[in-house]
Amino acid sequence: AQAILSQASQDQSISFPPINLDAMPEAEKKDVEMKDAESKEGEKKEGDKKEKKEEKPKDPRTLLIENIGRNLKTINAAVNAGDSRVMGRIIRSYASLRRTVTPDVLRALIEETVPDASRKALYLELAPVADTPMTDEEKEKSEVKFPQLPKPYPPEMEAFSALLLLTLLIDKKEMKESAFKLASAIVPWLKTFNRRTLDIFASRAYFYLSLTYERKGQLSDLRPELLAAYRTACLRHDAMGQATLLNLLLRNYLAYNLYEQALKLVQKTNFPESRPNAQYARYLLYIGQIKAVQLEYSDSHSKLMQAIRKAPQAPTVALGFKLAATKLAIIVELLMGGIPERSMFMQKELKEQLRPYYALTQAVRTGDLNEFKEQTQKHEELFKKDKTLTLINRLRYNVIKTGLRDINLSYSRISLQDIATKLGLDTAQDSAGVVAKAVVDGVIDASIDYDHQFLRSTQKFDLYSSCEPQKALHKRIAFCLQMHNDTVKAMAYPDESDIKDSENAEERREREKREMANVDDDDDDDMLL
Prior knowledge:
Strand content: under 5%
Number of strands: 3
Distance between the termini: 80 Å
Low-confidence stretches: 12-16, 520-529
Radius of gyration: 40 Å
Mean pLDDT: 79
Structural class: mainly alpha
Largest sheet: 3 strands, antiparallel
C-alpha cells in the first residue's frame, strides 16, 4: 500500500479501471447504488432551491385578492359553525384592507357578494372609480377571481363588502356625503336581521353612522336612534353592541356639553364585562371627562390614567385618543395641586402637540399669573377645540396659591398693593380677598392687618424646641406597650373555641384507644386468609 501511494504521488495521472458491478458482491453493489442516488437527490435539491430563488414575489393586487378570499372563507365557516367570535378577526383585517384595496377589486367584491339588485346598484354608484380607465386587454389580465363558495351567500358577506366600502369613503373626507348616504342605507338593512354573527358588523356600522352625522354637524339628530339601538343590544345580550353604543351616546351628550345627562346615563347603565379593550379605554376617557367637570379630580385622574394605559402602546396607533387623554390628564393633575412629570411632555409622537400645555404647566409651577394669562390668551382657540378651556380657567386660583406660598416664605410682612403687583391683580382689594381665602383654606399661615393694609406672616418656630417630639415618641411607646400586653393576655388565656376544639380532640383520641383495645388478636388472622 505504501508503494502504491508513493507511486501515485510521483505520477498523478494514474487511471483506474472502470468498476464492474457484476463482479462485485451484493453488499458493495448496494453501497455504490445508494451513493449515486444520494448524489442525484442532492442535485435535485439544489435545483429546487434555484427555482425557489428565481420565483418572483407576488404583486400587491394578488395578495389583496387572496386576503379577501381568506376572509370570505372564514366568514362562511363561522356562519356554518355559528361562531360569532371569529367575526372579530374579520373586523380587525379592515386595518390592512383599507390601505391596500383598489376600486376594481372592491367593485368585483360587491358584484360577487351582494345579491339584491337595488343595493348593489347603490353600492356601485357610491364606490370610487379608478383614476385611469383600463383597456380591454388590461381587464382580461386583471380579472378578479374569488373562491367558489356555496350560494346563496349569507348576509355577513354583504355586510363585509359594504363596510369595506364605507371605511374607504370615510377615509376620503371629501366624500362625506357619499359616506353619509351609504351609512344611512346599511344600518336599516342590518336592523332587519337578528343574527349573532352580524352583531359586530352592526356595531361597527353604527360607529361609522355616528361619525358621518358628527362630520355634518347633526349629531343630536341621531340620539333617539342610538338609544333605541342600545336598548335592543341589551335585550339581545350583545356585549360589543352595548359597549359601542354606550360610548357613542356619551360622546353625543359630551359634544353638546350635556354633562348631567351623560352622568345619569352612566349611573343607570353597566358597561359589559366581556368588553373590548378599545371600547373600554374610550369609556374611561368619557368618565374622566365627566368627573373633571363635576370637580371630582381624583377619580377623574385615575380614570384618565387607566385610559392612557389601556390605549394601544404602538407609537403610531391611536395618536388622537392618546393626545386627548393626555391633555385632559395634565389639566386635571394641575387642578389637584400637582405638577405632571416631565416625561409626559417628552413623548416623541406627542411632544409638539403638548407644547402649549407644557408652557401652561410652567406658568402654574412658578405661580406667574401674568404668564398664565398670556399663555391662555395665546392658545385660546386650541383650548376651546380641546374642550379644556373651562378647566384651564379654574387653574387661576392654583396659580395665585403658588405665588402666595412663595411670598409667604420670602416676606414676613408685605403690603396688599405689592401682593397685587406681584400676582398681577388689579387692585389691593382684589389681593385682600384672594389672600383671605388662602388663609381660610390653610394655604398660607399668615394674618391680614386691614388697618395698615399689609399681610403679616406667622413666625415659624423650631418644632424640636417644643414638646411635640416627646409627645409623638410617647404615643409610639404607648402603642408598643399596649400591643405587648394584648399579646401576653392572648397567650395566657386562650379563646373558648380553642378549648372546645382541644377537648373534642382529646375525647376522640381516648375513644380510638378504647376501640383498639377491644379488638381481638384473632381478627388479624382472618385478614390474612
